[in-house]
Amino acid sequence: MERYSDDDLQEFSVRIKTDYKEAKNELEILQGQVRELSETMSQNFGADMGENSGSVTSMELLNEQVLRKRDSIQALQNAMLRIQNKVYGTCAVTGKLIARDRLAAVPTTTKSLEGMRMQASGELDITAADVARRAAERREGPNKIVSKIKKPPPPPRKPSKPKRKKPGRKPRRPVEEDDDDII
């Protein structure tokens, strides 16, 4: 498997660390805005319907931005783990090196352009035969873990008791009307 040199990985690491620090700062700012808006909403909620709907929309947008930023931070952390494991810059699909230009544009990517095209075209639809073949290539066998686990027999079933019928509602007696009371 191809990989970038340790010097290259160090270079990528510096870039990812600076992006990580920026993302953490942006996340703190967004979280501060969410806190501020939620305090404002709790104090003035119910005063003006138009203002309330605008505040709710703003809160939803801020929460979406917070979620995106958290995903970005997680992706940067995963990239740092790949650098530490010395697999950063290797395509997860093809196993070839990802182009430096692509890594410069998207430092958290795990696929080369060729791998992205293969995935989009459906060439990566893996069948059970492919899984078995790959496992055999790794000399593990396709069901190594599963074959070691023996399932206990199911517990014996208890004889079920016949269900008793629940008594239904008794029909109501029709009320007989007296013609004497009619005016």
TrEMBL record:
<keyword id="KW-0175">Coiled coil</keyword>
<feature type="zinc finger region" description="dksA C4-type">
    <location>
        <begin position="91"/>
        <end position="115"/>
    </location>
</feature>
<feature type="region of interest" description="Disordered">
    <location>
        <begin position="134"/>
        <end position="183"/>
    </location>
</feature>
<feature type="compositionally biased region" description="Basic residues">
    <location>
        <begin position="158"/>
        <end position="172"/>
    </location>
</feature>
<feature type="coiled-coil region">
    <location>
        <begin position="13"/>
        <end position="79"/>
    </location>
</feature>
<protein>
    <submittedName>
        <fullName>RNA polymerase-binding transcription factor DksA</fullName>
    </submittedName>
</protein>
